[in-house]
Specification:
The complex is a heterotrimer of chains A (291), B (365) and C (304). By secondary structure, chain B is an alpha/beta fold. Helices cover 51% and strands 14% of the residues of chain B. The relative contact order of chain B is 0.15. The chains are: A mainly alpha (291), B alpha/beta (365), C mainly alpha (304).
């Protein structure tokens, strides 16, 4: 890192330097500290995981993750996370629309409530959801006579994942919708489009990047979710066992290789998702000038 | 994410500016040192006070050890004047063993089966391999067995192990991979069919496979399964430790559940052991040894029976506590399976019988 | 419900319309009918009520199921008190560490231009997308007895996993990005002009930061600290992997909730859970107040 934090910006003909000249002090200190701390807390630990996994070799990782039980767990995690994120995309869009476009009593309360899944500890959410959806719970008891069981089935996992991913789409769409120029809608209507046509052909396409970003964030969160799911999941191999739980089970069975391999696969996927989100946002910024 | 390019306007820098960072740096450094000091200092401070023992145990012993710990602390203080606090940790037996292997500093381990303590000895060498010979009765101050807990009136007519394999019966048991109790459950069913069929392992495997096909929820510990069955109302029968079944009846009302003793079950021996490396490091060997010896003494044996465990020395227990236990034919792991090491390798290791059963079951699902 | 024809403009909502003047041509329809609106609002409210509000109510309902006395009794248990103390301790260490990091990272990233900046930002965000279980696992792989530093730590009688340092590390990991992410977009928006002015007027670097940058960002900073704190106190997955679950020693509040829940002690489990839920509510309240009053002073683009 550059130690010449106060280099004179006047040295116009200076050779290439790491940092663009600036009058502000403290770059070396803050940058150095941030990078060091980042390395210590995040990068080195994650590198340890990758190192462990590299000891297994690619085919070792493949052999472990392609075993039927691991595949089933990954399938459960990804399938249900996709479904939950999709539901959140639809309802998140709706909630964002209602919150930005309409005035009604309790709107601010509703707005605040959206963030609850983010602030509520996952274990608390887990036992609360289990209490509600168990066969003798408030809602579980209602649907039990119909032969529907929610808690301890994939449906229960799905509900927990909808809960944890709920804020993401709302919060990504909201600012975009608030900035959306309504004159475009008026123009569309003036040109003879019905309200439905305007929404489908004009408004939604503009919101799409934000919805996709929110979808990806909700999906990423759901794939890794553990605390709220284990209380309501049933944890049955091949049926209601999620990948993070399988990591824990592998650990508890002294199977470090298994835990490491699954964890590495999940880490790779979260990194790809993060990349996708960044690309989406970059695209959206170029195209629409906002996130 | 969320970066926008920013325009950096450069104005002539003042030379003094850079030096100003120095006090900030000092402050930062001080904060860091403080943080690191706090992190390193905490466990030491926690250890420095009166003696603390850490007992890492399995799932259903929560209530038992709460009572035993109080009794021991009183006795120890009366005897030596020293205050002892016993901290316990509970969870699936396999998972608890893993924590100790990974460095959880347990002075004593009181797990669900010898195989898990063997694993600690093997993987971490924190106690000698012959640990089980150091205390009486295979180091088991109490034993238990596996019974069936059904809903009141036994609506599905469950009387024995083979009833669990019938279609339409939902069986609740924890995961044998993580729970010690679940391994005893599995082995008891296996021993039953082996006995009935005159030693046909194929039939035993078929019965156990059929039972596991009826399992809708596989929790990681015995307590999780009890909660699923009792509190969440799932399943027709809970395969459980005898002590766990009695406790569930006591906690949730005898009018809701019945205990069924199968015609044959297994003697479940949950052993206890001193973790030599930890007690020597922490200087707690004397009190830890006294704690384990206390488990075999009259006071603890009485508590053991009152918490529905079968005491090693029943003469110390209250007769009415002993009278509650049902009668059934009991076999041992050494007699039927040739000991834990063999049973673990044959049934529960990766790719062994349990995995085969489950993977075959997956295709049927 | 009104059955207004769709072609008619809907008064009283949308943009403040001019007084209804004789309409020659219907105004362009840029709003939904009342019925549609009512249905949309109703659906949104129902969705949030079902998925978000109901669980919150369940926590308090279960906690007070057997009356206030029972509820209060739950906190007399020394193990519960120890769990609360540990959670506070962990948050008191983790939050300031991430605060210092967040300020440093934001200063470097928002006020300077250097190559690799977006990579750095992405890496800071990484802990968000890593499964909590993986976050815990990495520390076991590093510091567990079988891990890379296991032998060395054992030789020096240092314990990290299954002790407080491990819990702190896992918590710092999962709450890593919170403060930085609140500050970076805001400080970027604000640019460097004010700081430069202060410096030109002779203020020292630290003074510039304290008197110019800090006041400009204090609400975002507070907001980041709030979120960081809520997550630090509530983290379950990562802490569960590194804790060892020894009551009174390494048991945090969320873990204690699980333990009580598994001991048939549902009232106590929900009582401890209600404390955490209360914390969440306070966080949300503070956040809402901050947003309503100082909306401009918070970073506009924020994604958790």
């Amino acid at each position: 890192m550059t130690a010449t934090a106060s280099a004179s910006p006047r040295a116009a003909a200076a050779p290439w330097r790491f940092r663009q000249p600036s009058a502000l002090p403290g770059f070396g200190l803050t940058f150095g500290f941030a990078v060091t701390w980042l390395s210590l807390i995040v990068l080195i630990p994650l590198a340890a995981l990758v190192m462990r996994a590299s000891g297994l070799g690619l085919d070792g990782i493949w052999r472990i993750t392609s075993s039927p039980r691991v595949l089933a767990a990954l399938q459960t995690s990804f399938g249900l996370s996709l479904a939950a994120a999709a539901v959140n995309a639809v309802f998140g869009l709706l909630v964002a629309w209602v919150l930005t476009r309409y005035e009604f009593p309790g709107r601010r309360l509703l707005d605040a409530v959206v963030d609850l899944p983010f602030a509520l500890p996952t274990a608390v959410a887990g036992i609360a959801l289990a209490a509600i959806y168990a066969p003798n719970g408030w809602i579980g008891g209602l649907v039990a006579p119909l032969g529907i069981q929610i808690a301890f089935t994939p449906l229960g996992i799905f509900i927990a994942l909808v809960f944890v991913g709920l804020p993401f789409v709302v919060r990504t769409v909201q600012p975009v919708l608030a900035d959306f120029d309504r004159e475009i809608e008026e123009a569309s209507a003036t040109l003879g489009a019905t309200r439905r046509q305007t929404i489908v052909r004009v408004v939604l396409p503009a919101l799409l990047p934000a919805v996709l970003t929110g979808f990806a964030l909700a999906f990423g969160r759901a794939v890794g979710e553990y605390g709220s799911v284990i209380f309501i999941a049933g944890n049955l191999p091949f049926k209601s066992e999620i990948a993070p739980l399988l990591i824990v089970i592998q650990l508890e069975e002294f199977n470090y290789a298994g835990a490491t391999a699954i964890a590495t696969v999940m880490l790779a996927i979260s990194f790809l998702l993060l990349l996708a989100i960044n690309l989406l946002q970059a695209f959206s910024r170029r195209r629409f000038g906002h996130v | 994410m969320l970066l926008r390019p920013i325009a950096v306007r450069s104005t002539p820098a003042r030379p003094a500016v850079h030096c100003a960072a120095a006090p900030a740096a000092a402050r930062l450094a001080a904060l860091l040192v403080l943080g690191v000091g706090l992190i390193c200092g905490l466990p030491a401070a926690a250890r420095a006070q009166a003696v603390t023992l850490v007992n890492v145990s399995y799932d259903p012993t929560r209530e038992l050890y709460r009572a035993v710990n109080d009794a021991f602390a009183k006795e120890w203080q009366a005897k030596t004047g020293q205050k002892v606090t016993i901290r316990t940790s509970h969870g699936g037996s396999g998972r608890q063993a893993r924590s100790v292997i990974d460095g959880l500093d347990a002075d004593v381990v009181t797990l669900a089966l010898a195989g898990d303590i063997d694993a600690i000895a093997r993987e971490s060498k924190r106690l000698p391999a012959d640990w089980q010979t150091r205390l009486p009765n295979n180091s088991s101050p109490y034993t238990s067995t596996i019974v069936l807990l059904v809903r009141k009136g036994n609506p599905k007519g469950i009387k024995d192990w083979d009833d669990l394999a019938k279609p339409g019966v939902q069986v609740i048991t924890p995961n044998p991979k993580t729970s010690g109790g679940a391994r005893w459950n599995y082995l008891a069913a296996w021993a039953f069919e082996l006995d009935r069929s005159g030693g046909d392992a194929g039939k035993a495997k078929a019965l156990v496979a059929a039972i596991f096909r009826n399992v809708p929820v596989l929790d990681t510990g015995a307590r999780g399964s009890t909660t699923t069955f009792v509190q969440r109302g799932l399943g027709d029968v809970l395969v459980a430790w005898e002590n766990e079944a009695f406790l569930a009846k006591q906690e949730f009302g005898a009018d809701r559940f019945d205990i069924v003793y199968p015609s044959l079950s297994i003697v479940a021996e949950p052993p206890v052991a001193l973790v030599d490396q930890v007690v020597d490091k922490r200087g707690t060997r004397a009190v830890a040894q006294a704690y384990l010896a206390f488990l075999y003494g009259p006071a603890a044996q009485r508590l053991i029976a009152s918490h529905f465990y079968r005491p090693f020395r029943p003469e110390h227990a209250a007769p009415e506590d002993l009278a509650r236990f049902g009668k059934t034919r009991l076999v041992t792991i050494d007699g039927v399976f040739g000991g834990w090491a063999k049973a673990q390798a044959e049934h529960f290791a990766d790719g062994a019988v349990f995995d085969q059963i489950y993977q075959a079951g997956a295709q049927g699902r | 419900m009104s059955d207004q024809p769709a072609a008619l403009p809907d008064e009283g909502s949308g943009r403040p319309a001019a007084r209804p003047t004789p309409v020659i041509r219907p105004r362009p329809t840029v709003d939904e009918t009342r019925a549609t609106k009512a249905i949309l609002i109703g659906t949104a409210v129902a969705f949030l009520a079902l998925f978000v509000v109901l669980p919150l109510i369940a926590v308090f309902a279960e906690a007070f199921r057997r009356g206030v006395d029972h509820y209060l009794e739950s906190f007399a248990d020394p193990d519960t008190q120890a769990a609360i103390r540990l959670t506070l301790t962990v948050a008191a260490i983790a939050v300031p560490l991430n605060l210092v990091f967040g300020i440093c990272a934001a200063w470097a990233i928002a006020k300077f231009e250097f190559p690799g900046k977006s990579l750095l930002t992405t890496l800071i965000d990484l802990p968000f997308s890593v499964s909590p279980v993986v976050s815990g696992l990495v520390f076991v792989l590093l510091f567990g007895a079988q891990g890379y530093f296991g032998k060395w730590l054992a030789a020096h009688d240092l314990q990290i996993v299954f002790a407080v340092p491990g819990i702190v590390l896992a918590t710092v990991f999962v709450t890593f990005p919170f403060v930085a992410r609140e500050l970076i977009p805001l400080m970027q928006e604000q640019g460097t002009a004010e700081e430069e002015a202060a410096l030109t007027l002779g203020a020292s670097g630290l003074r510039t930061f304290l008197t110019v940058t800090l006041p400009n960002t204090k609400w975002a900073l507070l907001y980041g600290v709030l979120l960081c704190n809520a997550r630090a106190m509530g983290e379950f997955g990562a802490v569960s992997v590194v804790s060892g679950h020894v009551r009174g020693l390494t048991n945090t509040m969320p873990l204690h909730v699980e333990i009580l829940y598994n001991e048939y002690n549902f009232v106590a489990a929900f009582a401890v859970a209600s404390l955490l839920a209360g914390l969440a509510l306070v966080t949300l309240l503070a956040k809402s107040v901050l947003e309503w009053r100082y909306g401009d002073a918070l970073g506009r683009t924020r994604l958790y």
